[in-house]
Structure to design on (253 residues):
């Protein structure tokens, strides 16, 4: 009875350890691994084993910024089962990463939270961080802006305005600075948001023009120096993407 009481507060209870076949993935790629469960001092009934894909984003309230957690997806690994004292069980799993999982650059972090639902007990949990690379079509865009003389300066997940929200309450914003090429001296910065799907990418660009002269300074003071451009592209557009991007930026700079 005393052992059961200790298990109910997490002492001598079952433990969980998730092992992935690798730690680095691309948006939309399939993740594979196993969940290892080791029983504690007493037999325990586990209602469910789950994996939660989690990240954080910045939320602004009254000009103050707060970090919020967001569950991108939740995956059920196993139905109810019983684990005996010191018994071990290994349960394999696989799932496809969502296309909107953030790329882990800048301040963005993504992890898998593994949990065992055990009634009347402190649920054991395990956290495994993932390295998420851009989808090939997003990588093609990043290469295109590099060719145009932009350098990636900042990446952050931020709460999105309602009209930009899709499945999630935030977007990942990529901020670029022109350091060479035709747009150096013409733009302050270029910001991009990507909505990736299995068919292609929708990108929203915010083109921040550099103030030039009195009219430019006035526009900047009135927040009129930023232009939003929206376009889509797919695998067949990759070769022409640098020129297409240059034309879009050029029209608004």
């Amino acid at each position: 009875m005393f052992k059961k009481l200790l298990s109910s507060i997490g002492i001598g209870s079952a433990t969980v350890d998730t092992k992935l076949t690798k730690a680095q993935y691309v948006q939309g790629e399939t993740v594979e691994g196993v969940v290892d469960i080791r029983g504690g001092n007493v037999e325990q009934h586990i209602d469910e084993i789950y994996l939660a894909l989690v990240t954080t984003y910045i939320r602004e309230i009254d000009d103050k910024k707060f970090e919020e957690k967001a569950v991108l997806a939740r995956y059920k690994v196993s139905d109810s089962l019983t684990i005996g004292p010191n018994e071990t069980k290994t349960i394999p799993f696989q799932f496809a990463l969502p296309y909107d999982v953030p790329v882990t650059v800048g301040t963005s972090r993504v992890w898998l939270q593994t949990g065992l639902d055990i009634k009347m007990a402190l649920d054991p949990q395990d956290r495994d961080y993932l390295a998420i690379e851009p989808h090939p079509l997003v990588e093609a865009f990043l290469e295109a802006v590099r060719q145009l003389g932009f350098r990636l300066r900042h990446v952050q997940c931020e709460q999105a305005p309602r009209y930009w929200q899709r499945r999630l309450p935030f977007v990942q914003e990529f901020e670029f600075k022109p350091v060479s090429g035709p747009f150096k001296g013409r733009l302050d910065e270029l910001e991009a948001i990507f909505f990736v799907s299995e068919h292609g990418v929708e990108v929203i660009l915010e083109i921040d023009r550099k103030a030039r002269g009195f009219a430019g300074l006035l526009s900047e003071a009135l927040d009129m120096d930023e232009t939003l451009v929206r376009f889509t592209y797919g695998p067949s557009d990759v070769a022409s993407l640098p020129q297409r991007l240059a034309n879009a930026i050029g029209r608004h700079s």
